[in-house]
Specification:
Largest sheet: none
Number of strands: 0
Helix content: over 70%
Radius of gyration: 20 Å
Order of helices and strands: HHHHH
Mean pLDDT: 87
Strand content: under 5%
Low-confidence stretches: none
Shape: elongated
Amino acid sequence: MYLALVEFGSVSADSVLQNVVAAVLYFIVGAAVLCLGFLMVDVLTPGSLRHLVFVEHRPNAVAVASAMYAALALIVVSAIIASSSELGQGLVDALVYGLVGVILQGVALVVLEAVVPGRFRDLIDSDRLHPAAIATAVVLLAVGGVNAAALS
């Protein structure tokens, strides 16, 4: 009979605890950035975005909000990956890069509104999905991808 030998190495509870604390703190930073992004989109769109998305189920509001959140999540993930390996500096890096991402996403939305014919704001609360909502969503995702790549 042969026994399989498996080397587990040493296990450090301190290392695991430190990683759990870091994960929780990065989650808090990421959630704060996403909340600020939600507030920014809410300010830049007519009506209550929360109400339009979750109560009235307006497809244009859902498309724009979803793209913005996905783009901001991409930025936050890249900010965390690109941040310092020292926890304190890494948290500051992730927060600052995330906030810059929120600002740039807001600028993209404002510029898009300015250069596209018609007013997208007038379509956000429509009950029918409009092609402009899809185009806006793709632009927001593209800008988020560029922002994320710039952080790496």
